[in-house]
Amino acid sequence: MATQVCPSGYYGDPFKECKCSPGEISRYHKRISGPLLDRIDIFIDVPHIDYEKLTEDKPVESSEEVRERVKTAHELQVNRFQGTKLTSNADMTPKEVKEFCAVESTAQSLLRTAMKQLHLTARAFHRILKVSRTIADLENSDIIKVYHIAEALQYRHKEAV
Predict the structure, then answer these.
(1) What's the predicted TM-score (pTM) here?
(2) What was the pLDDT predicted at 159?
(3) Which of 49, 127, 154, 160 shows its CA 20 to 30 Å from the CA of 95?
(4) In a domain, 7, yes or no
(5) 3-state class of 121 per DSSP?
């Protein structure tokens, strides 16, 4: 699913001014219901990237390296769920999240604070843990650490304006 930040698509754009009023932006966002937004695991803003950034000669992780990390994480999940009907972290129910998502104490503290401050639902809580489990798998970590939770929280829906 993809959407603009505002009706014009220029809110926050460094090169073109957004002329949308706060009311227009608010109405635009209300077209998507909260329960639907709550079912989306990852929100990512894709900002404008200028030419210099695209052409800079800076070492980056190759597609092959990323592919290998993803394959390894997938194999971890297949092994983890052997003997169950599950095939990936996304398939976990709340009961299975509790079983398969070991969280270090500092990460639990961060998640507790986020739940209170961001008024997250139970569904959001479980989705954050599943995304965190996947982030940890990409790092080949058995336990979900505070920075895995922090990264997963970054992918939650944020209100514009």
Answers:
(1) 0.79
(2) 56
(3) 154
(4) no
(5) coil
